[in-house]
Design goal:
By secondary structure, the chain is mainly beta. The chain has one helix spanning 3-11, and strands at 18-22, 27-30, 36-39, 42-47, 52-57, 61-66.
Length: 70
Amino acid sequence: MNAEVIRELVRRQPFQPFAIHLSNGEVHEVRHPECIMFGGGKVVIYDAEGDCFKFCALIHVNSVQFLQAA
């Protein structure tokens, strides 16, 4: 997936949380626009629940899906 597609989701106003689905079956949630960064063909997602960063190659991003509002 193209980084610009994901950047557009991050820039949307109002921001709507979304999940990134990877080719290995992992799913990473982006609940706030400040919890995601791009660089070097990768996307870095901060996981607040696990207090860790997830590094994902953009080539492995299969899809993105909006999350339901709580």
